[in-house]
Each structure stands twice: as structure tokens, then as C-alpha cells.
Amino acid sequence: MSTPTITPARRRVQRRTLLLLSLAQVFSGVGTGAVVSTGSLLAVELSGSEAWAGSVTTTMTLGAAVASALLMRLALARGRRIALSTGLLIGAAGAVGVVLAAVSGAFWLLVASGVLIGFGNAVNLQARFAATDLSATEHRGRDLSLVVWMSTIGAVAGPNLIGAGGTLAAGLGIPALSGLFVISTAGMLVGMAVIWIGLRPDPPTSSSSVGNRWPEPTERSRLRLCREVRGRGCGRASGRCGPTPDREPG
Q1: What is the per-residue pLDDT across 85-119, written as a single tens digit (0 to 9) for each?
Q2: Which of 8, 63, 99, 163 qualifies as a cystine partner to 115, CB 3.0-4.6 A?
Q3: 194: Cα separation from own chain's centroid
Q4: What are the contacts of 193-198 at 24+ separation with CB within 8 A?
Q5: Angle at CA 190, nearest 5°, toward 184 and 153?
Q6: What is the model's pTM?
Q7: Is the peptide bond before 201 cis (omega within 30 degrees of 0)?
Q8: Are 146 and 26 in contact (CB under 8 A)?
Q9: 3-state class of 131 per DSSP?
């Protein structure tokens, strides 16, 4: 199969897209990384039982599964920028919900908020594929892995900010464990702003405008394609396929 011609304009847009997605991943990764550690502690504290320690992580995973399908449909209809920004906004709302749950002592709200944070987690996963929309074929693995590493930085940094979150919580007069989710909210909102403001042009729509040029098929490639279609034949001169139900083209 032919591969698209990668123009200099397309390379520039791709480099910029990678930079923006990587930056957004660092900030949004802080939000999702906080759930695994501090979310578990909050679940035990609010439920009064260690049996519920993994409840928030579970609902976040379920939320990410639902969000993946919804954000995929949104991306197809409106583009990557809208889909990724919307997911992070919903994730930020989930982080706010965790803070409210800690303040009110409502365990059900904590669990429900985990579902919303799952949208942010889904964005972190889908951003990896957004990084390959304009990639050259031989660089797709490298571009995807770069964004994966950036999300890992945020996920590792998030739980390590629990001390700063505790200081912030003391200043705001809220429970100590909820302070990290204030930072998570800010991180997701910053990540959303980076994508919303910076991801222009949108990778899928820009592929046709910045050099996604496919070479004209050769006569040989036309003939090979025709042979792969069972029950059809080829005219060698025109490269067109016509019905020949009883035999393969000669």
C-alpha cells in the first residue's frame, strides 16, 4: 500500500501537536494519578471499612470505559480538540466532586466522582492516538511512546504532591486528603486549556490541509487490487475492474 507524502508543513504541525499533547498529559496525569493513592485512603475514611479501598479506582476504570466510547464518537463528529477538552473538563468536575465528598462525608459522592474522573483518564489514553494522527508511518511508535511517558510523569508526580495538598487543604479549611484533589482539579483545567487553545488545527482535519498527499496508484497496484477482489476482473489499459464471475483476470 502507498504511504502519504509527508510535507514540511505537516511535520511542523505534528511537532507542535506532540508538544501540546505532552504538556497537557503532564498536568492531567496529576489528576488521575491522585485517585489510585489518595482516593483509596479517602474511600476507607468515608466508608469506615478497608473493604471499600478500591472502590474509587474501580469506578474510575468503569468511567473510563464508558468515556472512551463517548469521546470517540465526539472526536469523529467534532474533532480531537473538542473531545479531549470535554473529557478533561468532566474529569475536573469529578475532582471537585471528591473535594465536596470529603467535606460533606458523603461516600456515595466520592464513588460517583470516580466515574467522572474516569473521563480524564480516557483522555490520557486517547491523547496517545491523537499523537499519531499526523505521524509518518515509521515514527508512529516513537510519537505515541513520547506521550505515554509524559502521562507517566504526571501520574507519578500526582501522589507525591500529597504533602503540598495537605498544606493547601489546611489553608482552605478542608480535610487534609482532599487537598491533593484541589491540585488535581487545577491540573486537569490547565491540561484542558492547553488543548482547547493550542490544538489548532485539529489533527484529523489538518491531515488534508497540511500535506496528507497520497500518490496516484500505478497500473500494477490497480491490477493487484482487482485480483484481491473475488469475482471481479481488470482491464489492463484502463485499470478498471469489471465483473468476471467465472475466472480471475489474466
Answers
A1: 999 999 999 999 999 999 999 999 999 999 999 99
A2: 63
A3: 14
A4: 194/20, 194/23, 194/24, 194/27, 195/20, 195/21, 195/24, 195/81, 195/84, 195/85, 195/88, 196/81, 196/85, 198/16, 198/20
A5: 60
A6: 0.76
A7: yes
A8: no
A9: coil
Q: Distance of CA 33 to CAs 10, 118, 128, Å? A: 33, 11, 17
Q: How many CB atoms lie within 10 A of CB 230?
A: 7
Q: What are 213's three cell numbers?
A: 498527499
Helices (H), 105-236: 107-130, 140-157, 162-172, 179-198, 203-206, 219-228
d(CA 80, CA 90): 15
pLDDT for 191-208, tens place per residue? 999 999 988 878 765 554
Contact 168, 184 (CB under 8 A): no
The one-letter amino acid code at 165 reads: G
| Cβ atoms within 10 Å, residue 178 | 24
Amino acid (one-letter) located at 196 = W
Alpha carbons within 13 A on the beta-carbon side of 12: 8
Residue type, 19: L
